[in-house]
Specification:
- There is one protein chain.
- This protein folds into two domains: 117 residues, 3-Layer(aba) Sandwich (Rossmann fold); 94 residues, Winged helix-like DNA-binding domain superfamily/Winged helix DNA-binding domain (Arc Repressor Mutant, subunit A, Orthogonal Bundle), CATH 1.10.10.10.
- The chain has eight helices and twelve strands.
- With 227 residues, the chain is an alpha/beta fold.
- It is 40% helix and 21% strand.
- InterPro entries: CheY-like_superfamily, OmpR/PhoB-type_DNA-bd, Sig_transdc_resp-reg_C-effctor, Sig_transdc_resp-reg_receiver, WalR-like, WH-like_DNA-bd_sf.
- It comes from Thermovenabulum gondwanense.
Length: 227
């Protein structure tokens, strides 16, 4: 089995070289781009397992790349940027990013996040298929169907939906969901959870399945199959 192939996109060559060094040391195959236009071309021509994407890029910015990628791909995306404001993070997640790391950063932390994200995406045979009225979730293929219609979710959207669904009727705080779905090493805002819940509901549409994700005011969220 070939090692995962990762595209690193940043206009600072020293950062790209540093990230490449640490990723290749762990056995990953690494490709690079220094502007948004080149990145989009490479994404179209290659099948990457993960993207590490800077926001502030020449020609085409990272937000635009993320938006374009999400039109037809659920490849994991880690935003790598000097912009640490909450608004930027929320916007990145709304556009489909899976993780967010702010410069200056530890290369070892970035590699750890890459490994964690790819590990969560690896098929696990011991996970159960979940089948509810109007909603089908298969973790081995990461397939979601709503009323027999396939729905494309980002990796984190899928993980969040599956976690809630497999723990049906249990109420989880936002803090607990961050811990269980994003992991202990994630330092994002609690609004990250709200953003992903909002996106999940939008993708489930006006189906019965959308009503299964219930807000428990003042606490968090739960998955409840309404009869």
């Amino acid at each position: 089995m070939m090692e995962p192939k990762i595209l690193v996109v940043d206009d600072e060559k020293k950062i790209v070289d540093l990230v490449r060094l640490y990723l290749e040391k762990e056995g990953f195959r690494v490709d690079e781009a220094f502007d948004g236009q080149t990145a989009l071309k490479k994404i179209e021509e290659n099948d990457y397992n993960l993207l590490i994407l800077d926001l502030m890029l020449p020609e085409v910015d990272g937000w635009t790349i993320c938006r374009n990628v999400r039109k037809n791909s659920d490849v994991p995306i880690i935003m790598l940027t000097a912009r640490g404001e909450e608004f930027d993070k929320i916007l990145g997640f709304e556009l489909g990013a899976d993780d967010y790391i702010v410069k200056p950063f530890s290369p070892r932390e970035l590699v750890a996040r890459v490994k964690a994200l790819l590990r969560r995406l690896s098929p696990k045979e011991d996970k159960d298929v979940l089948d509810f009225p109007g909603l089908y979730i298969d973790p081995s293929s990461r397939l979601v169907k709503v009323d027999e219609r396939e729905v494309t979710l980002t990796p984190k959207e899928f993980d969040l939906l599956y976690f809630l669904a497999k723990n049906k009727d249990k109420v989880f705080t936002r803090e607990k969901l961050l811990e269980e779905v994003w992991g202990y090493d994630f330092y994002g805002s609690l609004r990250t959870v709200d953003t992903h819940i909002k996106q999940l509901r939008e993708k489930l549409g006006r189906s019965k399945a959308a009503s299964y994700i219930v807000t428990v005011w003042g606490v968090g969220y739960k998955f409840e199959v309404v009869k």
